[in-house]
Design a protein that fits this description.
Length: 164
């Protein structure tokens, strides 16, 4: 975790500024599947996200998602950073975010860090398909249960308005 944080801190210094006319906004549509907590089995869901390009390789990200679960499901709101290596049609990235989750009674926590490792395949300048695997580490586990954690995968469609 410290290595990832050091990487995200060091990356902006190495990133090039954006070229004039580079689109900065991305819209992300995600299909989710995973085990958001060790207290529940695997389940599916969906989400919508935004990315705002800060430099050539660094993005500010945010998303909202809903997963199936007892008592109304599990909702989440996340904000964070994504570091992307975008020199090829397949763009690998690392993300680090803070996530607020609903339904604490079922989930066992309500605030977590989310780390993800993924890649997007840019098949058109304005469209990409991606896959990301994310882990959740709770800040406030119920009963100080150190084994509470989550793991999920997201298949995503990424749309970049204005890309030419």
């Amino acid at each position: 975790m410290r290595c990832l944080a050091a990487f995200l801190i060091a990356l902006p210094a190495a990133a090039a500024p954006l070229a004039p006319g580079t689109p900065q906004l991305q819209l992300r549509f995600e299909g989710l599947f995973g085990q958001p907590t060790t207290l529940l089995g695997a389940r599916g869901g969906g989400g919508l996200g935004l990315g705002w390009r800060l430099t050539d390789q660094l993005w500010a990200i945010g998303d909202a998602a809903q997963r199936a679960a007892p008592n109304g499901g599990i909702g989440s709101l996340a904000v964070g950073l994504q570091a992307t290596l975008d020199m090829t049609p397949i763009e690998p990235y690392v993300e680090l975010a803070i996530v607020r989750l609903t339904n604490h009674d079922v989930l066992g926590y309500s605030l977590a860090t989310r780390t993800g490792l993924g890649a997007d395949w840019v098949f058109r300048k304005d469209l990409a398909l991606g896959l990301v695997v994310r882990t959740y580490t709770p800040f406030d586990p119920e009963g100080d249960n150190a084994t509470l954690a989550g793991l999920e995968a997201a298949l995503r469609l990424v749309f970049t308005p204005g890309a030419k």
